[in-house]
Amino acid sequence: MTEVNPQKVSAPEADEQARVEAAAVAPSGPGNGRLALGRIGEARHLGLLIALALLAAVGLITAPDTFATTSNMVSLLALASTIGVITVGSTFVIIGGGIDLSVGAIMALASVWATTLATQQYGPVVMAICAILVGTGAGLVNGFLISYGRMVPFIATLAMLVAARGLAQRMSERRTQLVSQDNSALVELSTTRVLGLPLLVYIFAVVVIIGWLILNRTTFGRRTYAVGGNPEAARLAGIDVRRHTMLLYALSGLCCGIAAVIIMARTTTGSSTHGDLYELDAIAAVIIGGTLLTGGRGTIIGSILGLLIFTVITNLFILNGLNTSDQLIAKGLIIIVAVLLQRRSLQTAT
């Protein structure tokens, strides 16, 4: 009787965790619609570029003397930098199946904390580190409450929004805190220009590049798609879903801290009013960029294009002297249309 080689009877089992991570980001056959979803994403990017071109044409027609000027383009990019850094963090959270309503309030809290007299006496570097640590810490609290406290993300981040804004008001006594002249190096991030652009624009660009690399070229990014697409399958594959979710919110908080540094440089102040309705702009940019509110699909590039559309719309309203309330109405309608188009595209793909 011949002996059976056990290695020929059964092949070694595949790495289930790697399989789930790969399935979350790689298109498969045309039968299940994943390839169609990828094509929809590419088409959406093209559509966003066309929308940007149309908005630029509107700007050239309605405000020909001011829209295409160098100063206006620089101010537009500076405004986009602050909200854009927050948008990168929000993209990760929403792809991971969550939502963060507290980003504006966390940025305000970080700016206030970093501009107190006690912090400013240690210099601009410590101020920047303080803002980043405060933002990251607040994000970790959000992540812990959601992951281990099993709170609904909407409720947890809404509570953080109220608490962070209240703490910022109490710390500053509802006053605007000025960056002292001794810490002018922080302000120079806004005033110093390289190739015609302020340094804060380059900070924004670096955050976008790093965010894109993490999302598309690392295990962390693959797990983000997996957790957002099917958290139970990700858990069964060996991914620590709770820890990963907490890290996603910490990453969002980190981006809020960086945005606080940028807004302190732009305004030379720390204030509890900073970041008002920034959560609206960030979430809207992510949705318009094609990221699913239910998680599992989205891109950094799409979110940034969506952000630029919102920033140009805001700029056009300002240049044409239109009412701020009308601007908010227009943004709300854009969000509704984007969500409806997203649902329709998904129904068509499946």
Q: How would you describe this structure to a colleague?
A:
- With 350 residues, this protein is an all-alpha fold.
- It is 73% helix and 2% strand.
- The protein contains 16 helices and 4 strands.
- It has helices at residues 6-9, 16-25, 34-62, 70-95, 103-114, 117-120, 124-147, 153-172, 184-191, 199-217, 219-229, 231-236, 241-267, 278-288, 300-319, 324-349; strands at 177-178, 193-194, 197-198, 269-270.
- The strands form 2 sheets. The chain has a two-stranded antiparallel ribbon with strand order 1-4. The chain has a two-stranded antiparallel sheet with strand order 2-3.
- A hairpin with a 2-residue loop joins β2 (193-194) and β3.
- The longest helix is centred in the first third of the chain and has 29 residues, at 34-62.
- It is globular and about 55 Å long.
- The model is unreliable at 1-14 and 27-38 (pLDDT under 50).
Give a concise summary.
The protein has 350 residues and is mostly helical.
**Which sequence of SSEs, written as H and E, runs from N to C?**
HHHHHHHHEHEEHHHHEHHH
Global outline: globular
**What's the tally of helices?**
16
Mean pLDDT across every amino acid position: 84
Q: Which strand order does the major sheet show?
A: 1-4
- Classify the secondary structure makeup into a structural class: mainly alpha
Distance between the termini: 54 Å
> Strand content of the residues, in percent?
under 5%
- Total DSSP E strands: 4
Helix/strand layout:
Layout: H1 6-9, H2 16-25, H3 34-62, H4 70-95, H5 103-114, H6 117-120, H7 124-147, H8 153-172, E1 177-178, H9 184-191, E2 193-194, E3 197-198, H10 199-217, H11 219-229, H12 231-236, H13 241-267, E4 269-270, H14 278-288, H15 300-319, H16 324-349
Antiparallel strand pairs: 1-4, 2-3
Helix pairs in contact: 2-11, 3-15, 4-10, 4-11, 4-13, 4-14, 4-15, 5-7, 5-8, 5-13, 7-8, 7-13, 9-13, 10-11, 11-13, 14-15, 14-16
